[in-house]
Amino acid sequence: MTDVHVVALCGSLREESYTRIALEHVLDAAEAAGASTELLDLREFELPVFDADRDREDAGDAAMIAERIREADSIVLASPVYHGSYSSPLKTALDYSGFDEFADKTVGLLAVSGGAFPVPALEHMRSVCRALNAWVLPHEAAVPRSSAAFEDGSFVDSKLEERVATLGRRVVQYARIEPEPDSFESDHNVGAKGK
């Protein structure tokens, strides 16, 4: 699997981001499994709020982000949990993407929460990926109570660390899985056509 390329999007804009720390652990595990990796830290890009009347090429770095996603064999989406869902920077990056970037790609999901229940954010990201006809890994990683989950950039809980590392290994292992037939959601996703 040395020719697998994993691209990860970090949906947190915080300087001291637990999401970014957890995502780096995912990418370390993917590299250990033989993949090349790339972190797209959304705080480093100009990404205006999505406007369907604006071409992607005229929307800051949106076209460049979409191109880097398109070049990936597997994609990891990582987000902090805000109001029970994922972040607006990640949503904006996804809105500027479409079937060309996600269809038939393997996607891994990571949600990081200050509270105890990050699961709805994972479900929301999964729904978006299904609408783009991606193959989403059954294994997902959630980091609850994130302020207590790390010490000096390392996980405190070895079971949680293993769950996050497993996500990194799985995006490499299943990068070339034969995708399912198109999903019902993608068949009706006219918003992504032509992206």
UniProtKB/TrEMBL annotation:
What SUPFAM superfamilies is this protein classified in? Flavoproteins
Domain named NADPH-dependent FMN reductase-like: which ranges? 5-145
Q: Which Gene3D superfamilies match?
A: 3.40.50.360
**Any signal peptide, and if so, which residues?**
none
Named cofactor requirement(s): [4Fe-4S] cluster
An example of a GO molecular function for this protein is:
FMN binding
* Gene Ontology terms: cellular component: cytosol
Q: Which domain of life is it from?
A: Archaea
- Tell me its family: Belongs to the SsuE family. Isf subfamily.
Which PANTHER family does its entry note? Answer: CHROMATE REDUCTASE, NAD(P)H-DEPENDENT FMN REDUCTASE LOT6
Protein name per Swiss-Prot or TrEMBL? FMN reductase
